[in-house]
Every structure is written in C-alpha cells, then in structure tokens.
C-alpha cells in the first residue's frame, strides 16, 4: 500500500512537472518574441530619429555612417534601410535602398511591422522590418519635405537580430522550475511518509481485516500503544464492529440451524452466507409444507418430495421405500434414475435393511462396505431412515455416481432431511386416513372387504370394465351347514371356520380379484377381467375343492371339514348391471344348495322361472 502511494505521488509529480515545463517553454517563447520585437522597434526608432535629424540638418551624406554605427550594436547581425516608391519618385535614385525580400515588400505595401523567427539547434535569429510612415509627431511634420499623404509609408528599417542569449537565459530558468518542483515533491513525499506512516500501517491492517471478514473471519486489529488518540478510537470502534458482527452472525446461524436440525460447525464459510442459504431454504420449506397440507394422498406428497430432490438439490438417483414391520412388507413408492441396487437382497426380507434395522443413516465409506447388501462397487450410497408411524418406516436410498457427488450430498443433507421431516407427519396422516377408510370397508373378523366397500367400489369398477370391454365373474359362496358348526362347537369355532375360508380364498384367487364378506357365512368373489365363464368355473371349482380338502383343528386333536356351494354369473353377459349379476349369482347359489350342496352352478335363464314357481 505504501509503495503504491509513493508511485502514485511520483507519477502525479512527473505529470505536474511536464505540464509546468510545457507552459514555461510556451510562455518563454512568447516573451522572447515580444522582447525581440520591442528591441527591434527601439532600434528602428533610433534609426528613424537619426534619419530625421540628418535630414533637418542637411547632412544626408552621413546617413550610411550613422547606419553602420547602429548596425555594429550587440546582437544586430544586419541592418538596412529601404525606400518606398513614393520617396524614389520625389528624390530619384531608383536603385538606392531597394527591398531585399518579401518581408520588405509586404511592409512597404501594408505599412505594418512584420517579423520572421528562424530557429536552429544552436542559434535563434529574428528578421524584423519596421515601417517608417508619414506622421506629425513631436513637432516634426514629415509632409513638409515629402509630398505624400499622412499615413503613407515612406520606407522601413530592416534588422536581423541574434536572440540566442535571451533564449538561453529563458531555458535556464525553464530547466530550473521543474527541478525545483521535483525537489519539492520529493521533500513533501518524505515528510508525508514520516508523518502518515502510522496511518498507512493502520489502513493496511484494516484492509487485511476486511478481506478476512468477507470470507467469514471477523478478526480484531491489534495496535501499538504509541498510536494517536484518533487511531486508537478508530481501531477500538472497528474491533467493536467486528466482534458484534461475529457474535451476531454466529448466533443467527446457530438459531437458523436449529430450525433444520443441523449442528453448527467451525468451517471458514462466511456465517452470513450460510445464514442466507438457510433462510432461502426455510422459505422454500415453508412453501413446501403449505402445499403438502393440501395434497389428497401420500403418493402426491411422495411425488412432490421427489420433485424437490431433483429440482432444488439436483439429486439424480434415489428410491423411496416404505417398510411395514408388522407385515414384514417392503413397498417401493417412488423411484428416480438408477438406484435401489439392494432390492434383490431385501425385498422379501426387509428386516435385512441396515438403515431400517439400525434406524441411523447408512453412508458409503472407504475400504469396506457400510451396508453388505449394496453391491455396486463403482457407486456410492446415502440411506436415510424416517419413522412415519410406530410400525412404518420410510427409507430413502440416494445413489451417487462419484465420491465428489456424495460429498456434495453430505453438505446439503440437513436441508434434505428438513423436507423429509416436514413431509413425514403429512404422510402419516394420509396413512392413518387410509387405514380408517380401509377399516370402514373391512370386515373385522376375516380382514376381507365388506359389503359397504362393494357398494362404493362398484361405482368406479363398472365404468372401468365397460371402457376396457372386460368381464367380471361374480362368485357367490355359502358355507354348507354352517349353523350346525355354531350349534355343536360354539361361535369361536364358527369364527375360525370363516377365517379359514377367507384364507383359502386369498390363496386361490389373484391379487387383482376382490374378495368380500357379503354377510354371515356368505362370501363373494369378483373375478375382474376373467376371460370367459369357463375360466370362472375353473376358479370356482378350485375354491370348492380347496375348502373340501382343508382340515380345521377344533379341539383335542379333532378335525373338521366343511364344504361350500357356489353360484356363478357373468357381467355383462347375464345382466347389464352389477346388481343384476349378483342377483343371478344368488339364484345359481340357491340351486347349488337345493341340488345337494358342495357344487358350483352357472346361472342360466331357466333358473329364474323355477325360482319364481317355487
């Protein structure tokens, strides 16, 4: 900083010196020029006075001697007289005192003084011609002798002067001025440096401290005891400002980090910049929270969370997995990019998932596997565990292509977790709502859908079946002689028989088929999208056979076997409405029970008339 100040001052001094020198030379030239012209006019006036005296006294024959004496004066290299044509016409002697050059001719013509400056490296001369005009001056009237008009040019005095001495004196003065300026500047610089040295040192310390403050390190300045009161006050105020900035920024950062569950660290990143990022993320987080509160399903929340991962945090590969500990069930709810490389190892046995088991983050480490089921050698993973409810966990599996990408994810994982933590309560609410809805549509004894579910679901199912031009096979089942079981063994065994029937139905039909406890010991199976009534009959007979072969433990080693009767009707072949098909299946069931039970009966039109006759 000091060197910079010195060079700046020197530069200013040089510029000032050049300007002063230039102006001095310019003024010198003008002064020399004016002085030389004045000298020439003085000499011309002397010559003019001498000529007038000689003319009055009548001794014009001595004019040349007078001219030569004047021409011998110092610095006059040459002097001559010239006559105008008016004088020559009056006195004759045409070839006497004629003009020598263009300057003489111009002066005789205009009656004005003319000059010409001739400069070389070693010598400077001035060529001057001063006119001699007819005037009335000092009691002398030129027109008494000359027959001309007042103001006419009678002649002129021409001189060639050597003005090198005058120029040399001016140059010496000109050289002396810049030298004095430079010496003055150096003296001022020397005195200024001595006086302001401690000010410059303080400014340098302030500059270094400000640079550190920009990077987040608010350092105070240490000063010497011999500083002036003004500097001490300045440094004390600055140190107070830095300490206030440091304490305030750290406190703001710590409080903001508390919102996102991140611990403060001692990194050299500017805490104000970190606080700015935290506030920005908190603002986005607030908007996210308001949006998920309006989402209808947990899938919408998962999709919104996925968009945040991709758009805000630039995460390319991740999978959202729900694990139900009670059911030992793993469900992939959202997958983006290439991830979940451990799927084959934990899908059937989710309790193997290290993140779910330890309830801690599981991150790729060097030299050994943090998770034995992540088998991609050239990939890196970061798994999070979020407890959605008492028995349901959300595992988020992030996969990174490079080690640097993993480190970047670690840096922003606290913000990522803040979004997940905000989403978790809303997801739990949606799960509870689904559970409540399922309980409203679920039979408490068997866990199957109830009749209310059939009424609600059929409103969506029938239009879909019609749009896709599919079939529904409706099986209506009734446990044969079920009242006898209750009477003989009690209602607890009766409940066990119904549960066994529900189990057999679940194991026999497809997941896409719907099983409903229609009432008491009566069950209904909707074979959604079945190809034909023969396929439906095959399923019905398989159910009937599985029930007949199943043995139910009663008590004391006793076994119980039961049978079912089944009625089948097809939608839309047998009726254009689902209610009509159910009624037809009920008619077929009646015929199966009436004809000996343990049978499957396909509905046909003739059954309607026989029921009516009965």
What features would you describe in this structure?
The mean pLDDT is 81. The protein has 614 residues and is α+β, with helices and mostly antiparallel strands. It has a five-stranded antiparallel beta sheet. Strands 13-14-12-17-18 form a five-stranded mixed beta sheet, with helices on both faces. The protein has 17 helices and 18 strands. Helix 1 runs antiparallel to helix 5 (164-214), helix 13 (482-489) packs across helix 14 (491-508) and helix 14 (491-508) packs across helix 15 (533-549). Strand 7 (318-324) and strand 8 form a beta hairpin.
Structural class: alpha+beta
- Inertia-based shape: rod-shaped
How are the strands of the biggest sheet laid out side by side? Answer: 8-7-11-10-9
The number of distinct β-strands equals 18
The tally of helices reads 17
- Output mean pLDDT: 81
- Biggest beta sheet summary: 5 strands, antiparallel
Please compute the radius of gyration using only Cα atoms. Answer: 60 Å
Strand content: 15-25%
| First-to-last CA distance | 116 Å
Give the topology.
Elements (H helix, E strand, L loop, with lengths): L1 H56 L5 H9 L4 E8 L1 H7 L10 H9 L3 E6 L4 E10 L2 E2 L2 E2 L11 E10 L1 H51 L14 H32 L10 H22 L5 H14 L6 E7 L4 E8 L6 H4 L7 H5 L3 E2 L16 E8 L4 E9 L2 H38 L10 H18 L3 E8 L2 H8 L1 H18 L5 E6 L2 E7 L4 H17 L2 E2 L5 E2 L3 E8 L6 H17 L5 E3 L3 H8 L1
Parallel strand pairs: 17-18
Antiparallel strand pairs: 1-6, 2-3, 3-6, 4-5, 7-8, 7-11, 9-10, 10-11, 12-14, 12-17, 13-14, 15-16
Helix pairs in contact: 1-2, 1-5, 6-7, 7-11, 8-11, 13-14, 14-15
């Amino acid at each position: 900083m000091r060197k910079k100040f010195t060079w700046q001052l020197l530069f200013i001094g040089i510029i000032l010196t050049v300007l002063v020198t230039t102006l001095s030379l310019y003024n010198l030239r003008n002064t020399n020029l004016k002085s030389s012209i004045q000298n020439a006019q003085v000499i011309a006036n002397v010559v003019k006075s001498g000529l007038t005296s000689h003319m009055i006294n009548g001794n014009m024959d001595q004019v040349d001697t007078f001219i030569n004496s004047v021409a011998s004066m110092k610095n006059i290299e040459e002097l001559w007289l010239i006559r105008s044509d008016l004088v020559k016409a009056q006195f004759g002697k045409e070839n006497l005192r004629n003009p020598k050059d263009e300057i003489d001719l111009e002066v005789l013509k205009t009656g004005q003084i003319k000059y010409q400056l001739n400069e070389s490296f070693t010598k400077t001369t001035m060529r001057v011609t001063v006119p001699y005009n007819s005037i009335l001056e000092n009691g002398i009237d030129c027109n008494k002798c000359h027959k001309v008009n007042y103001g006419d040019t009678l002649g002129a005095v021409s001189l060639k002067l050597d003005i090198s001495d005058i120029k040399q004196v001016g140059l010496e003065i000109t050289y002396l001025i810049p030298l004095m300026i430079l010496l003055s500047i150096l003296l001022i610089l020397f005195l200024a440096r001595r006086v302001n040295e401690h000010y410059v040192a303080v400014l340098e310390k302030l500059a270094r401290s400000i640079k550190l403050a920009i990077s987040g390190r608010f350092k105070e300045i240490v000063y010497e005891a011999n500083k002036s009161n003004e500097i001490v006050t300045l440094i004390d105020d600055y140190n107070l400002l830095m300490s206030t900035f440091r304490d305030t920024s750290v406190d703001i950062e710590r409080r903001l980090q508390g919102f996102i569950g991140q611990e403060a660290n001692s990194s050299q990143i500017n805490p104000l910049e970190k606080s700015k990022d935290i506030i920005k993320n908190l603002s986005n987080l607030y908007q996210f929270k308001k949006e998920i509160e309006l989402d209808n399903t947990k899938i919408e929340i998962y999709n919104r969370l996925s968009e945040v991962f991709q758009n805000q945090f630039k995460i390319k590969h991740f999978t959202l997995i729900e694990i139900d500990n009670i059911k030992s069930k793993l469900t992939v709810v959202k997958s983006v990019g290439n991830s979940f490389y451990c799927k084959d190892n934990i899908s059937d046995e989710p309790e193997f998932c290290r993140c779910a088991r330890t309830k801690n983050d599981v991150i790729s480490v060097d030299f050994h596997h943090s998770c034995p089921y992540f088998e991609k050698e050239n990939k890196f993973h970061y798994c999070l565990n979020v407890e959605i409810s008492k028995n349901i966990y959300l595992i988020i599996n992030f996969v990174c292509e490079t080690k640097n990408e993993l480190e970047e994810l670690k840096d922003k994982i606290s913000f990522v977790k803040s979004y997940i933590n905000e989403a978790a309560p809303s997801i739990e609410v949606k799960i509870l709502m689904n559970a409540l809805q399922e309980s409203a549509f679920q039979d408490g004894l068997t866990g199957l859908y109830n009749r209310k579910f059939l009424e609600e679901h059929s409103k969506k199912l029938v239009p879909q079946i019609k749009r896709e031009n599919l079939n529904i096979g409706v099986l209506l089942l009734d446990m044969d002689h079920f009242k006898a079981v209750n009477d003989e063994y009690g209602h607890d065994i009766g409940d066990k028989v119904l549960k066994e029937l529900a189990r057999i139905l679940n194991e026999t039909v497809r997941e896409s088929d719907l099983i409903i406890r229609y009432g008491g010991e009566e069950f209904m199976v909707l074979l959604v999208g079945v190809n034909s009534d023969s396929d439906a009959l095959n399923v019905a007979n398989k159910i009937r056979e599985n029930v007949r072969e199943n043995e139910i433990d009663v008590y004391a080693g006793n076994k119980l076997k039961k049978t079912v009767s089944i009625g089948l009707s097809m939608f839309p072949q047998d009726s254009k409405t689902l209610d009509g098909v159910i009624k037809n299946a009920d008619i077929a069931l009646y015929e199966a029970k009436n004809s000996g039970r343990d049978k499957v009966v396909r509905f046909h039109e003739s059954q309607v008339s026989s029921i009516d006759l009965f």
